[in-house]
Design brief:
The protein has about 250 residues and is an alpha/beta fold. It has 8 helices and 10 strands. The strands form 2 sheets. Strands 1, 2, 3, 4, 5, 8, 9 and 10 form an 8-stranded mixed beta sheet that branches. Strands 6-7 form a two-stranded antiparallel sheet. A hairpin with a 6-residue loop joins β6 and β7 (about 125). α5 crosses α6 (about 155-165).
Length: about 250
């Protein structure tokens, strides 16, 4: 399958989607050409789902950055919190940059079915993101108890509560799993900004990319639909919106 054919499937749902390889390449070009930094001066953190498919499908070229520091748990919510962000910030090279890639993920099979993918070694499709679909199922069955977060299933319960707060919006949507993913993105974006505000950085720049990470079948790969790309200059105290670099 050609790249343009793969993109055509994904862009039925996410019109600005790019392959994750192209996304990483553009970030590295910006780091080298505009910020005049070597990728080894950039410490990367990601707050994406701990699903193994994300490790399998994320581009090898991202390893030119230092890291990544893993902030995310189920569906990408930054469960490592203030301590994790502070630890990550303390690891960045002097006068370098931090690059934070964050957001939920969702599957789209090559048949165009949202919320499912064919994984390596499996004949049948499986859920992606399984946590989001599980929480959505409980929401649809009125099985989420408001405010209930247990020690044994803390992360899943947190995702459930995020969806519960937007119950009417999600259940009214034409594609509830798509809308649930949008809701989770918004919660992650808000929390990442709260964590940044609570953290001290000794570097020059913060590169902040919020996106929906889109997985597809094992022979199709992954994609990224960017929703935010900010370059924060900590010395000048300015924020530049460069999302247009990732909009096709």
């Amino acid at each position: 399958m050609l790249k343009k054919e793969k993109l055509a499937i994904i862009r039925n749902y996410y019109p600005n989607a790019m392959t994750t390889i192209d996304t990483v390449n553009r970030v590295i070009d910006l780091v080298e050409d505009d910020l005049e930094l070597d990728p080894t001066q950039v410490m990367m953190a990601d707050s994406i789902c701990s699903d193994d498919v994300n490790s399998i499908q994320y581009p090898v070229r991202s390893q030119e950055f230092l890291g990544p520091f893993k902030m995310g748990g189920l569906d990408g919510f930054p469960f490592t919190g203030v301590t994790g962000m502070g630890a990550f910030a303390s690891h960045v090279p002097d006068n370098g940059a931090v690059y934070i890639y964050y957001g939920p993920h969702i599957g789209i099979s090559k048949e165009g079915i949202i919320g499912e993918i064919h994984r390596f070694g499996q004949h049948d499709t499986s859920s992606c993101c399984g946590a989001a679909k599980g929480a959505l199922g409980k929401l649809q069955n009125n099985a989420i108890e408001p405010g209930k977060i247990t020690e044994m299933d803390y992360q899943m319960n947190t995702i459930e509560q995020i969806l519960y707060k937007q119950k009417d919006r999600i259940l009214r949507a034409e594609l509830p799993i798509y809308e649930a993913t949008e809701v989770i993105y918004e919660a992650i974006d808000q929390r990442i900004h709260e964590l940044i505000a609570a953290t001290n950085y000794n570097c020059r720049y913060i590169l902040l990319m919020g996106a929906v990470l889109i997985n597809s079948d094992k022979d199709v790969g992954s994609f990224s639909s960017a929703k935010r790309f900010d370059v924060i200059d900590l010395k000048k105290k300015t924020t530049t919106d460069l999302l247009s670099l990732f909009v096709v």
